């Protein structure tokens, strides 16, 4: 990037579409982490999710000329991801691996100082993971995408190919089911419950 200049996303896309294809690396860097988390939520397999994210980015680079700005670039990219996921399912007849929620703890960081507090957080996060894993798929996917993958409601609608209103309804119902189990949403690292109304 010339002179280490930081471009806005819209300018970056415009320059790539104008022929500066080398800038796509920066665009991919900005979206790769959230794209990988969304892929993981869909397929629940680490290697498969990495392959899906790479394929989506590659396809995004090849067809960026088709991006017309009528939606967020992330929404467009997640739409590609979902298409690749469904295509891979048909090709591989993939069996769903066990939930990553039961194996990994995306909520914890190494920065917690108090060991007693750390233990309580670990116990709370474990209860949360188990509770989310037991939700119906339609609620589990929305909650994982919203809070663990930190996807916007619009992006979730693109990933799952459902209307925005359906995403809001599923998120509301999923959070309500967690409340009924005495699971508090403040256990999430980036709770945005207000998004249900947005």
Helices, by number, come to 8
Low-confidence stretches: 94-113, 186-198
Strand content: under 5%
Number of separate domains: 2
In CATH terms, the superfamily of the largest domain is Winged helix-like DNA-binding domain superfamily/Winged helix DNA-binding domain
- Counting copies of identical and different chains, the oligomeric state is single chain
Write the layout of secondary structure elements.
Blueprint lengths: L8 H9 L6 H20 L2 H17 L10 H20 L22 H19 L3 H12 L4 H8 L3 H17 L18
Helix pairs in contact: 2-3, 2-4, 2-6, 3-4, 4-7, 6-8, 7-8
Protein name: RNA polymerase sigma factor
Family: Belongs to the sigma-70 factor family. ECF subfamily.
Organism: Planctopirus ephydatiae
General description of the model:
This protein is mainly alpha-helical and 198 residues long. The protein is 62% helix and 0% strand. It has eight helices and no strands. The protein is elongated and about 55 Å long. The two termini are 35 Å apart.
């Amino acid at each position: 990037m010339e002179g280490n200049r930081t471009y806005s996303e819209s300018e970056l896309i415009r320059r790539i579409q104008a022929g500066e294809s080398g800038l796509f690396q920066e665009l991919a860097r900005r979206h790769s982490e959230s794209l990988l988390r969304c892929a993981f939520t869909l397929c629940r397999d680490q290697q498969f999710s990495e392959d899906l994210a790479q394929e989506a980015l590659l396809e995004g680079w090849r067809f960026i000329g088709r991006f017309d700005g009528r939606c967020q670039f992330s929404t467009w990219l997640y739409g590609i991801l979902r298409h690749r996921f469904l295509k891979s399912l048909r090709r591989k007849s993939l069996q769903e691996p066990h939930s990553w929620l039961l194996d990994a703890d995306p909520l914890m960081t190494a920065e917690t100082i108090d060991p007693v507090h750390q233990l309580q957080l670990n116990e709370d996060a474990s209860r949360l993971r188990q509770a989310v894993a037991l939700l119906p798929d339609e609620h589990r996917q929305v909650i994982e995408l919203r809070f663990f993958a930190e996807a916007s409601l619009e992006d979730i609608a693109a990933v799952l190919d459902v209307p925005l209103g359906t995403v809001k309804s599923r998120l509301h119902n999923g959070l309500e089911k967690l409340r009924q189990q005495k699971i508090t949403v403040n256990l999430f690292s980036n709770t945005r419950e207000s998004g249900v109304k947005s």
